[in-house]
Design a protein that fits this description.
Layout lengths: L15 E5 L10 H9 L3 E4 L14 H13 L3 E6 L16 H5 L3 E3 L5 H8 L5 E3 L11 H12 L4 E4 L8 E11 H7 L12 E7 L3 H13 L8 E8 L12 H8 L7 E2 L13 E3 L2 E6 L4 E4 L1
Parallel strand pairs: 1-2, 1-3, 3-4, 7-8, 8-9, 9-10
Antiparallel strand pairs: 5-11, 6-13, 7-12, 12-13
Helix pairs in contact: 7-8
Length: 300
């Protein structure tokens, strides 16, 4: 039996929303993102880490921990947006206290390295939002930003996609989990590991070698994570690399080969991940997935 979700209140105009950097430092200001959030009627609170620098990180581990903890605990903050990903969240996650956050849940937004937080918070039965981050706002498509607004304000979220020749047809309804493939594999064996059984899994990645994607998918298969899924949604696998001696399969072929023994629906090419058209999806929430020869429908 699935646990009851402890869903954060959806945002309303006048709410305070915090921006913090739990991982890599920002290369430039995020004024366009602040302006966007304010245009939605939100009051933006900036963390100390937004303009902090410690080598490649947005401040040292202690500062990044303290900054995120402040917003986890502050009852006036209704949502926390990670300014960017990169690397570094795993270095601080075990120092964070989620007790206040569990009592008064709030929306956590981000992708890429922020998968570490998505995965950890999944075990608290609190949904989170995989979507555009402030660093990416200047290059983001309007539909992707609008999808984030809808997710935050609790408006209807539905996606209709063109068919993909690689898709595995079928219909299912189950809670959505996932994130960046590399981070999901990295979380395995830790207290932050997600429960995959009976879920629809979303995966995306960037800048990986094809053989590494194959290796990570086989890791998920051998650890039993793929067998019990209700469905699979494949997002952007961007800037993939190959060796001088070709691997011999593209990402779609790699995934289909590893999942060929299973019979759940698989959607390829969902517009989420390291893309300008990175649409918001809600982890933890139940999703209806219907893949036919004519179209793909995903309803939250």
């Amino acid at each position: 039996m699935l646990a009851k979700l402890n869903t954060p209140p959806y945002l309303k105009k006048g709410d305070k929303i915090a921006i913090t950097c739990p991982a890599k430092k920002l290369p430039h200001d995020i004024n366009s993102a602040i302006t966007l959030l304010e245009s939605w009627g939100l009051e933006v609170v900036l963390g100390e880490t937004v303009y902090a620098s410690h080598y490649q990180f947005a401040g040292d581990d202690n500062l990044r921990t303290r900054d995120l903890q402040r917003f986890l605990d502050d009852a006036e903050i209704k949502a926390i947006v990670a300014a960017r990903g990169g690397y570094g969240t795993i270095r601080i996650i075990d120092q964070l206290d989620f007790s206040s956050f569990s009592r008064r849940p709030k929306w956590l937004i981000g992708f890429s390295d922020i998968t570490a937080l998505h995965s950890h918070i999944h075990n608290l039965d609190i949904p989170t939002i995989h979507g555009q981050m402030p660093l990416n706002v200047p290059d983001a498509t309007k539909p992707s930003l609008e999808s984030l607004r809808k997710a935050l304000f609790g408006e209807s979220l539905e996606y209709l996609l063109e068919p993909n020749t690689y898709n595995a047809l079928g219909e299912t309804s189950a809670p959505l989990i996932g994130g960046n493939l590399s981070l999901l594999v990295m979380m395995m064996g830790s207290v932050s590991e997600m429960d995959f059984k009976g879920k629809i899994l979303f995966i995306e990645d960037v800048g990986e070698y094809l053989y590494a994607v194959d290796r990570m998918m086989w890791n998920l298969k051998r650890s039993g994570k793929l067998e019990g899924l209700a469905g699979l949604i494949v997002g952007g696998f961007t800037s993939m690399k190959d060796n001088d001696e070709p691997f011999g399969q593209n990402v779609e072929e790699i995934i289909l080969n590893v999942t060929k023994d299973y019979h759940y629906p698989i959607c390829f090419g969902f517009p989420a991940g390291h893309l300008s058209d990175n649409h918001a999806i809600i982890f933890g929430k139940n999703v209806y997935l219907n893949i036919t020869a004519d179209r793909v429908q995903i309803v939250f």
